[in-house]
Write a structure and sequence with these properties.
Helix content is 42%, strand content 25%. By secondary structure, the protein is an alpha+beta fold. A 5-stranded antiparallel beta sheet has the order 2-1-5-4-3, with helices on both faces. A 5-stranded antiparallel beta sheet has the order 7-6-10-9-8, sandwiched between helices. Strands 12-11-15-14-13 form a 5-stranded antiparallel beta sheet, with helices on both faces.
């Protein structure tokens, strides 16, 4: 035995003697339970070796008599000492004391110890110690306790989730927000957190912008100190999806985000997405003021709430959409030009939209309960009665339109059309549904349109000018008799042909350009003068006015043209223009034409630095011819003189009858000033030849004045100089 074992043993009893001292010693040495003997001072006198090694991990002979308490857990020292004192005070009484010991491997062992005061026992004379290791039992008890607590938590969660679900089901959809607030309070209290929140991402069905927040007592709303909203959490959650964070310090967030979390006292976050039919509609989450490992049960609780929230959200959205649809329907019915009317099985008005009051000029309230036939024209009652009978029988084709006349409050009869459907078997309606439309204006417009069409037909067929309708491509599909007469073609000969086939080649390019602009929509009409080819190959001048006819939607449909024969006007205009430019007797240029040409030639002469001259010619003895032979003979002489004058001039020269027997000649672009003398000589020579007038040879001479333009000359001065020179000649 070791030095700490007892050195004297009591005398064995007869039974002990039979067992043997060696056997006792073996039982004590190898017992799993610690057996020891302490002196009244607490010193260790004996410890069973196996138990010491098992409970403390040290050899029994390594213990000193004053180190008995070293293996006791510091928190349990007082318990062990108190029990030892009690044992000293109560001889023979077993004093039990549960405590923990510290194993050499670092484990904590749970021990049930018992002291018994056997100091007065002659064979012991000390405090007997008996210790049993109940660590395994303690662990099992803790596990059972943990399971019981977990079960209680599960039961609490189930009860909470059931209450939340009932709340969503029992309360009306418009209390969706209140249900969420109640649910968050329960979730937050069960989880033991600082905040519980829901962040909605669909504002169409979420009250208050889709954000709710519950805070534990003494905890303020997130970001309240900074005037921010819970949408900040939306940024965090959206960037990371649902997440489980035991310690936000480990996130390595941007400084501003970490600052916000610190300001709100958020140390741990649990967030779960709320999904509806694969659509993300929000998040439900918890904030903890301290770092924590999130319990899977809590996470499961949030996931189950997310599912409940999605169902309630869908119900709420459906209610909102239904309400909006009802409001839109009422708005459509109120704004519709049609009246919706329900007639019960007895033929009385059971329902009507506000439009009926506008159509008939009577409040709907005055019409309800009245016989439908009261407003029907007497001549239409039999027909409408038969129609209603067929509607009830189900023999009326779907969508069939029936016209009738109805009386208004003013006594006027209006035209309406009705489309009828039987809904007698529908418990929500139980009647015949009539769609009633006032067509008075439409029929009046149709009559006006018909009259206009008839007038157009009358005008088109009997117009004194040519008219044609053409496709957008330019092909004629209708022509009137006047156009056929104008061009010498029959109607069938023109139909299917385009305007280009009847247009003079010189006018074609301009006509096509205008036609294309009209087709492209850059013009609404065009007016032009062009030449049309007649059937005999000749051309006539026409004024053509073409416009675009469009549909009600503004789309081009076809073109209409009005063609007027202006050949005579063109001929008259040409004659007038010739009279204005050329002398009617001699055919020479008039004074105005000559002066215009002189002005232009003076400018050109200065630019080119060429010589320009004017001849002023006065016929000698012309008055004698008039006096002796008469003015008609004088006129004949002037005509011949003009022809002779033109015959000796250059192609660039211009001759003009200036008045009476006076002529002027413009000679531009002379090579030298003396060249004009040669022109003057030719003129003089041709004029001095005898004129054979009425079988008589007449001799007249010519006085010719010449003026050569200098750099500063103008037309008036030049003519004056030439006139003066002729006079002197």
């Amino acid at each position: 035995m070791s030095q700490h074992e007892v050195t004297s043993r009591p005398s064995p009893t007869s039974a002990d003697a039979e067992l043997g001292a060696a056997a006792y010693e073996s039982l004590l040495r190898f017992s799993p339970h610690l057996v020891g003997l302490l002196s009244p001072d607490g010193d260790i006198r004996y410890l069973s070796p196996a138990a010491v090694d098992l409970l403390c991990g040290q050899a029994a002979d390594s213990w000193d008599t004053d180190r008995g308490l070293d293996a006791v857990h510091p928190d349990d020292l007082a318990v062990v000492i108190r029990a030892f004192v009690d044992a000293l005070e109560q001889p023979g009484v077993a004093i039990a004391f549960p405590h923990r010991t510290l194993h050499a491997n670092g484990e904590v062992r749970h021990i049930i110890g018992t002291y018994r005061n056997l100091i007065d026992h002659p064979d012991v004379q000390g405090i007997a110690l008996y210790c049993v290791d109940v660590t395994d039992h303690e662990h099992l008890a803790l596990q059972l306790k943990s399971r019981e607590a977990e079960q209680e938590q599960r039961i609490g969660l189930e009860a909470a989730m059931s209450a939340i679900a009932r709340n969503f089901v029992d309360r009306p959809a418009d209390e969706f927000g209140a249900c969420i607030e109640d649910a968050l309070a329960q979730l937050g209290e069960i989880a033991g957190v600082a905040r519980a929140w829901v962040l909605g991402l669909d504002a169409t069905a979420i009250d208050r912008g889709g954000t709710w927040e519950w805070c534990a007592p003494g905890v303020g709303p997130a970001h309240a100190e900074h005037g921010r909203s819970m949408e900040t959490w939306g940024r965090l959650v959206n960037k990371r999806g649902g997440f489980v964070i035991a310690d936000v310090k480990a996130l390595e967030l941007p400084e501003w985000e970490q600052t916000e979390l610190d300001c709100d006292g958020v140390a741990a976050i649990l967030a779960v997405p709320i999904m509806h039919q694969d659509e993300l509609i929000g998040y439900v989450g918890l904030h903890s003021a301290v770092a924590r490992i999130w319990d899977p049960l809590v996470q499961s609780m949030l996931e189950r709430y997310a599912s409940l929230h999605a169902v309630a959200w869908s119900r709420r959205r459906a209610e909102i959409w239904r309400g909006r649809a009802d409001a839109r329907l009422q708005g459509w019915l109120a704004a519709s030009w049609d009246s919706l009317v329900v007639i019960d099985e007895e033929g009385r008005l059971a329902y009507a939209t506000p439009r009926l009051a506008q159509v008939l000029g009577r409040p709907v309230e005055d019409l309800l309960g009245s016989d439908m036939l009261d407003v029907v024209h007497p001549d239409d009652k039999t027909r409408i009665t038969e129609h209603v009978r067929d509607v009830v029988a189900g023999t009326v084709p779907h969508g069939k339109v029936v016209e009738m006349r109805a009386i208004t409050a003013t006594g006027a009869w209006i035209d309406v059309e009705i489309v009828s459907t039987s809904r007698l078997d529908d418990p929500d309606i139980e009647g015949l549904v009539f769609n009633v439309r006032d067509i008075t204006e439409r029929k009046a417009f149709a009559a006006t349109l018909h009259d206009a069409q008839m007038r157009f037909e009358e005008v088109f067929e009997h117009a004194p000018i040519g008219m044609a309708l053409a496709e957008l491509s330019g092909q004629f599909f209708r022509v009137n008799p006047a156009l056929c007469t104008m061009l010498g073609y029959s109607g069938p000969e023109m139909l299917g042909h385009t305007f280009t086939e009847f247009t003079h080649p010189d006018d074609l390019a301009a006509n096509i350009e205008l036609h294309d602009a009209l087709t492209a929509g850059t013009r609404r009409s065009y007016l032009m003068e062009k030449r049309y080819r007649r059937s005999d190959g000749t051309y006539i001048w026409c004024s053509v006015n073409v416009g675009l006819v469009c549909s009600a939607t503004g789309e081009p449909v076809y073109k209409i043209g009005q063609i007027t024969d202006i050949s005579e006007q063109k001929s008259n205009a040409a004659a007038l223009e010739r009279e204005a430019r050329y002398d009617t007797l001699t055919g020479l240029a008039t004074r105005k034409l000559f002066l215009d040409a002189l002005e232009r030639s003076l400018g050109a002469s200065r630019r080119r630095k060429s010589t320009l001259a004017v001849l002023f010619i006065d016929l000698d003895h012309f008055k004698h011819v008039n006096d002796t032979l008469g003015h008609s003979a004088g006129d004949e002489l002037l005509v011949v003189a003009a022809k002779r004058l033109e015959s000796v001039l250059r192609p660039t020269d211009l001759a003009c009858r200036f008045g009476g027997d006076e002529f002027v000649v413009l000679c531009p672009d002379l090579q030298a000033p003396e060249d004009v003398a040669f022109v003057a000589e030719r003129v003089r020579a041709i004029i001095e030849q005898p004129f054979r007038i009425r079988d008589t040879d007449l001799f007249v001479g010519a006085s010719i004045g010449i003026a050569i333009a200098d750099d500063g000359a103008d037309s008036t001065a030049l003519l004056s100089q030439a006139d003066s020179a002729a006079y002197r000649a």
